[in-house]
Every structure is written in C-alpha cells, then in structure tokens.
C-alpha cells in the first residue's frame, strides 16, 4: 500500500516531468519556428523596403494629425533640405517643394480623402524644376492606421506627361492636317475620289460632283456615278483594281466630258493598301493645246530665224547643239551633215577655230572653258569678236530656263565700218566747222546750245567752261549782249532763233558790234528739229562791195569809151580804106595809063589787103556786138545747098591762092532751114578761112553739110599743123583772147573762130573744136531746126 501510495506521486512527477519535457520540446520547436518565421519576415521586410526605395512611386502616409510617414528620398525629390514631417512641410519654400496652388489643392484632396475615403488623382509641379508629379490618393488600411490616415502614392510623371503632351500635340496636328487635307481635297479644282477595297466609290470632292453634274457627293456615291467612260473594254473600277493588284500607281490619258465639254484628262489610280484606291484627274486639254501651239510656234520661230540675217544657235542642257539657222551655217561655213551629228558646244568652238571664225587668242583651251561657263550663269553675256579676216561679230549668249544656251551672232562689220566712217565724219565736221569763215552754232528745240565752232566762241568772247555746259539760249544772251553796239538788239536775235525752231522757216538779220564790225545773221531750221545759227563777218565784204561798185562804174565808163573808140576806129579806118580801094580800082582800070604786069600784081595785092582789112574790121565790130548782146539776126528760110555753094565760092580763090585743095560735100544737106544766111556764111567762112590760112601748101580742107535728125551740121576739117590743147580750151571758153603766131610757127586763133562760135550759139546751136598738134583741126557746128 505504501509503495503504491509512494509510487503514485512519483508517477505523477514523472508524468509532469514528461509533460514539461514535451512542453519544453514543443516550446523550443515553436520558438525555433517563430525565429525562422521572424527571420523570413525580416528578410521579406528588407526586400520590400528595397523595392519601395527603388520603386517609381513614393508611398506617403498622411495621418489624421497631419504628420507624414515618407521615405527620405521623397523629400530629396521635392528638393527639400530636411525631411518633411508634416504635410505643410511640402510647400512654403522659395525654390523647392510644391507650388502654393498645388499645395492648397493637395491639402484639400487629402482632407477630403481622410474624411470620406474618396480616392483622387492630382498633378503637381515642383518649384525650380521641370519635373512633374502625379499623386494617387486613397484611405490607408484601417487595421494599420485606425484613425483615418491617407495613403498617397507620388509618381514621377515628367516623361509620361511630356510624352502625353507630345502625343496630344501630334494628335491635334494630325487632326488639323487631316481637316486641312480634307478641306483641300474638297476645294481642289481637280476631280478626286476614293474607292473602297471592293472598288465602289466611297468619297468624291466638289470638283467631281460638278464634273458629273450631280447634286452632291452623296448622290454620286449612292448612285455610283462614274466620271470616266469605259475604255478598252475596262470600266474605271477595273483600272483601279489593276492598280491595287499591282500595288503600283497607274497613269493614263483618257477622254471625258466635263461640264458638257469634251476634254483630255490625265488619270491617276493610287493604291492605298487595305484602305482602297484613291484617284484624281488632271485636265490636260489646255496643256495639250499649249504644246501644240508651242510646237507650231517653235516651227514658226525656226522658220523666222532662218529668215534673219543674224546667225542663231541653240544648245540644250547637255551642251548639245539642237538648232542652227541658215545664216549661222553660212557665217561659220558649217555643213548640214556635220550639224546633223548634234555636236557639243566645245566641238562647235573647235570647228569655228578650224574655219578661222573665232578671235585669235593665246590660250584657246582656257578661252573655250570660259565660254562653257556661260551655261552656268543666269545673266546674258555679250562679246565682240574680231575675226582674222576682219569680220566684226557681236555675240550674245542668253541662258534659257531648261539649262541650255541661246547664242546670236550678228555680223557688225558694216556697222563697224559705218561707225568708223561716222567718227571720221565727225572729226571732219569739227575740223570743217573750226576752219569756216562763218561763226556757227546749233541750238536744240529746247533752246540749249549743242554744237558750235571756234569762231563762234571767239566772236562772242565765250569761254570753253561755259560752252561745255551746253547752256540754254537765255543764259547766253546776257553774255552776248555786251558786245553789241545796241544791247537791246540781242532780244531780236533770241526771238530769231526761237521763231526758226517753232515755225521751221529760215530767218535773216544783221548785227552791229560795238567795235564797228557788222555780221550777216541767218537761222536755218534743221531736219532734226534743231536750229542752225550762222554769222558772217560782212565788214570786209562791205569794203570790197564798195570797191567793186567803184570798179564797176570805172568799167562801165571804160566800156563806153571802148564803144566810142570802136565806132570812131571803124569810121577812121573805113574812110582811108575806101580811098585806098577806090584808087586801086582806078589804077586797075587804067585811069593812070597802062600798068605793067608787076604793077598789076601790086594793085591786086592792094585790093586783097583792103578787102581782108575790111573783113577784119567787120569781124571786130561783130564780135563787139556779140559781147554786148546786140548782134542782130535776120532769120529767113534758106536753101541749104545754095548756102553751101555760096560759102564754097567765097573761099575758092583764097584756097587756090594758098595752094590748098578745098572739097565740098552737101550730099544729104538738102532742104530749107530758118537761119540768118549772112551770119552763117560768116561763121562757116571764118572756120574755112582759119583752115585754109594756117594749112600747109598742098594741104586739104573739107567742108561737109549734113542733117543729123532735126539738126543741120556743118563740119570743117583740115590736115594742117593743128593746135595745142590750151589754145583749144581758150577758143571754147567764154573769154577767148586773140593770139598771134608763136615762135614755133604753130598758129593759134584770132577772132575768127570765137566769132564763129558766138554766131552759132546765138542761133541756139553748138560749136565743137577738136584739134591736136600734128593731127589737123575739126570744127563741128550744129544748128537745131527752130
């Protein structure tokens, strides 16, 4: 019993010890489990902290009393120098933290969330920084913060906001561009349309609607009104489907009716991938017409260029010769076969050089490159080429818009020669003006002095400085008035010039200078509207004129004395001559008895000399009358053969005495003519007398009378010694002077031939004398029929 009673407590103790051991073991196991769990939690907490520190969002807890629980880097994000402990610490700083307005908005949102539990999203800005924050706020876990704290998540949305703004701006720009493009398509003057992938019309613009005469685009789309007609068995939709299948733009020229008019259109089908096919039509009818006109104009222009005198050559942008007119080919001696090869510009210059049609230069390659630069300039170039053969060429190189070059070669040789001649003429004119005895000036239509000579400046005492300014007439008149004896006369001279310019009539006047000189003034209108002013110094002329008047009076007096002398001489000569002839006739008739043969010869010689002297006196008197213009003519119808015979008979004895053969030919000199037979016998007789008297013994004299048309011609010729040219000229002149025989025995004329010439000319005829030493003399007297 004792053992039993003792063992029970021990057993209980053992049980208790076992339980305690088990409990200790369990406790140890639980402790170890808790320690492991704690370690796991600490490790997880550490990882969560590191995640929160590296997370893009910053968790901030705002408790009900306004205190904050936030990581330190959040304060650094806001640019704060010390960690923020309250919500108000986030604002109120000058260059950090939140802006005042953002801070007030955040405070209001936080209070509202703490009060109502409502979530919010708010955008904030940081002072002094371009960074932007986005705050997402809601109520914190009540189990952790039972008093109503607000959990705020701050996100750095700078890049997101920038991207959002960028996308927003791009979206707005795209929307604007689309609206503009849609408006442009709608307002475009070209018909434009869009087809769905099934090739049905989806959209047309206003120009399309007008072209097909529809009410609006909806009617066109609904009814499927096509702008283009089927061609080559294909509808417009088929052409669009081919472009879409080939995924390439297609273009074609078709005919269509626009607004009731048949036009040519250039149609484009443009595939747009899955969106369908776009199309547009450009009216090229005007372009085709313009091309046709340009082609016709080009052909007409080339025909015109071929008619020009200047050479024309055209090169394209590749420097290839595309056109050369005929004058160009002729000027540079180019063959059509060579030009048909379309040579380049450099080859053309080389061929020109081979033909000697470019200027001689020392470095031809450099010269050629400089001319090739004409293609790269925008301004025209002009040169003058002096060719080796003396040809002057004016070369004009005009760049054309397509990059080519148009060259014009004008032969200015004649113009250069004319310019040189003009320069020479101007110099000659200046030299002529300066050496004239007249003072000359030319005033233009506006009264300005344009040309003057040296004598004009000297006469009026004008200096070169004044004249070179080409002064007006009003400016010159005060200077000129100082030299006149009456200065008021200068007004008359000024009006004279003005009236000549306006009325285009020649005017004359006189000007007397203070020094006594007198000038003859004349103003002459010139074809170009100018007025020529001339001044001739008449001072010496007046003296000469007076001297001439005095001389004329003296000559008149001498002429009167000469007339009286001739009359007295004729009377004084004829009286003794009549006595000599009368006594000689008595002696010849035997009044004084029979004469010996020798005495009879002397008497005959006396009678011949008396007759000859009488003829000479008559000749002198007749010549004097002719000089005085008082020779009377008694015209009457005269038989020409009879007249010729009388003339021959009157000179037969003289010819026989001189042993000269006289031949008379009046073969066709028949008929009558109104003339003075006495004067004609005298004239022809003087020619025969001269031919017989000065002929040699055994010589021949021919008198010929013939008709030449309506004129009667007397020809007297001889084979005598002839006359010198000076003597022939003297006889043929109006102031023939009688001469005697010279020392060589070559006889010249007395008054016979000059008298014969005067008689013939008084009948309206002509007198011709042909003679040379040793070749005889021929006198031709022509009398026209009255």
From TrEMBL:
EC number: 2.7.13.3
Lineage: Bacteria, Pseudomonadati, Pseudomonadota, Alphaproteobacteria, Sphingomonadales
SMART domains: HATPase_c, HisKA
Superkingdom of origin organism: Bacteria
Name used for this protein in its record: histidine kinase
PROSITE patterns linked to this entry: HIS_KIN
GO terms for MF: phosphorelay sensor kinase activity
Broad EC category: transferase
Transmembrane segments: 6-32, 135-155
UniProt KW keywords: Kinase, Membrane, Phosphoprotein, Transferase, Transmembrane, Transmembrane helix, Two-component regulatory system
InterPro entries for the chain: HATPase_C_sf (IPR036890), HATPase_dom (IPR003594), His_kinase_dom (IPR005467), HisK_dim/P_dom (IPR003661), HisK_dim/P_sf (IPR036097), PAS-like_dom_sf (IPR035965), Sensor_HK_Regulatory (IPR050736), Sig_transdc_His_kin-like_C (IPR004358)
Species: Sphingorhabdus rigui
Residues annotated as domain Histidine kinase: 568-786
Catalytic activity: ATP + protein L-histidine = ADP + protein N-phospho-L-histidine
């Amino acid at each position: 019993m004792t053992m039993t009673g003792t063992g029970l407590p021990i057993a209980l103790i053992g049980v208790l010890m076992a339980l305690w051991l088990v409990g200790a073991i369990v406790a140890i196991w639980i402790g170890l489990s808790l320690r492991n769990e704690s370690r796991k939690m600490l490790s997880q907490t550490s990882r969560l902290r590191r995640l929160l520190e590296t997370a893009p969002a910053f968790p901030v807890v705002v408790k009900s009393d306004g205190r904050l629980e936030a990581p330190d880097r959040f304060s650094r994000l806001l640019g704060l120098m010390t960690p923020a402990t309250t919500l108000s610490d986030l604002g109120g700083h000058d260059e950090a933290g939140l802006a005042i307005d953002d801070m007030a908005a955040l405070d209001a949102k936080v209070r509202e969330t703490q009060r109502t539990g409502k979530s919010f999203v708010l955008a904030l800005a940081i002072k002094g920084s371009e960074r932007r924050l986005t705050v997402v706020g809601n109520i914190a876990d009540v189990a952790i913060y039972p008093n109503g704290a607000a959990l705020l998540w701050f996100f750095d949305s700078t890049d997101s906001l920038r991207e959002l703004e960028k996308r927003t701006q791009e979206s707005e720009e795209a929307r604007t561009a689309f609206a503009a493009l849609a408006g442009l398509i709608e307002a475009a003057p070209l018909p434009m349309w869009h087809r769905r992938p099934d090739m049905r019309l989806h959209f047309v613009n206003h120009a399309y609607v007008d072209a097909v005469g529809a009410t609006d685009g909806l009617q066109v789309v609904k009814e499927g009104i096509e702008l283009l007609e089927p061609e080559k068995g294909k509808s417009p939709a088929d052409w669009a489907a081919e472009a879409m299948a080939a995924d390439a733009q297609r273009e074609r020229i078709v005919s269509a009716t626009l607004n009731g008019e048949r036009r040519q259109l250039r149609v484009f089908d443009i595939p747009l991938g899955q969106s369908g096919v776009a199309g547009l039509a450009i009216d090229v009818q005007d372009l085709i017409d313009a091309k046709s006109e340009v082609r016709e104009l080009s052909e007409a222009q080339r025909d015109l260029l071929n008619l020009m005198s200047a050479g024309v050559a055209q090169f394209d942008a590749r420097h290839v010769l595309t056109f050369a007119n005929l004058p160009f080919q002729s000027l540079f001696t180019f063959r059509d076969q060579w030009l048909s090869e379309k040579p380049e510009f450099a080859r053309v210059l080389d061929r020109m050089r081979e033909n000697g049609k470019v200027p001689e230069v020392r470095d031809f390659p450099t010269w050629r490159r400089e001319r090739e630069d004409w293609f790269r300039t925008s301004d025209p170039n002009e040169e003058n080429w002096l060719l080796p053969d003396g040809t002057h060429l004016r070369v004009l190189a005009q760049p054309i818009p397509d990059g080519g070059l148009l060259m014009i070669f004008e032969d200015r040789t004649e113009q250069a020669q004319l310019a040189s001649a003009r320069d020479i003429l101007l110099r000659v004119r200046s030299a002529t003006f300066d050496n004239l005895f007249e003072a000359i000036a030319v005033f233009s239509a506006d009264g300005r002095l344009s040309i003057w000579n040296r004598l004009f400046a000297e006469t009026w005492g004008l200096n070169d400085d004044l004249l070179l300014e080409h002064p007006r007439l009003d400016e010159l008149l005060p200077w000129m008035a100082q030299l006149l004896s009456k200065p008021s006369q200068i007004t008359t001279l000024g009006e004279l010039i003005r009236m000549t310019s306006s009325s285009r009539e020649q005017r004359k006047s006189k000007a007397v200078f203070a020094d006594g000189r007198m000038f003859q003034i004349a103003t002459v209108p010139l074809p170009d509207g100018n007025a020529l002013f001339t001044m001739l110094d008449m001072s010496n002329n007046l003296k000469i004129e007076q001297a001439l008047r005095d001389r004329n009076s003296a000559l008149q007096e001498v002429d009167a004395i000469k007339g009286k002398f001739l009359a007295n001489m004729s009377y004084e000569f004829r009286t003794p001559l009549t006595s000599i002839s009368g006594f000689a006739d008595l002696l010849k008739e035997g009044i004084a008895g029979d004469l010996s043969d020798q005495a009879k010869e002397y008497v005959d010689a006396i009678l011949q000399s008396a007759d000859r002297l009488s003829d000479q006196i008559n000749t002198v008197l007749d010549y004097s009358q002719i000089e005085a213009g008082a020779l009377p003519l008694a015209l009457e119808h005269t038989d020409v053969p009879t007249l010729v015979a009388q003339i021959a008979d009157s000179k037969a004895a003289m010819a026989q005495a001189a042993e000269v053969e006289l031949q008379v030919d009046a073969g066709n000199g028949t008929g009558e003519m109104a003339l003075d037979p006495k004067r004609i016998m005298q004239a022809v007789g003087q020619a025969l007398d001269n031919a017989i008297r000065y002929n040699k013994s055994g010589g021949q004299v021919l008198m010929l009378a013939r008709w030449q048309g309506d004129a009667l011609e007397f020809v007297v010729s001889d084979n005598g010694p002839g006359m010198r040219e000076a003597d022939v000229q003297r006889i043929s002149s109006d102031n023939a002077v009688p001469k005697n025989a010279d020392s060589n025995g070559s006889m010249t004329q007395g008054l016979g031939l000059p008298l014969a010439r005067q008689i013939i000319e008084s009948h309206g005829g002509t007198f011709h004398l042909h003679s040379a030493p040793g070749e005889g003399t021929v006198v031709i007297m022509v009398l026209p029929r009255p």
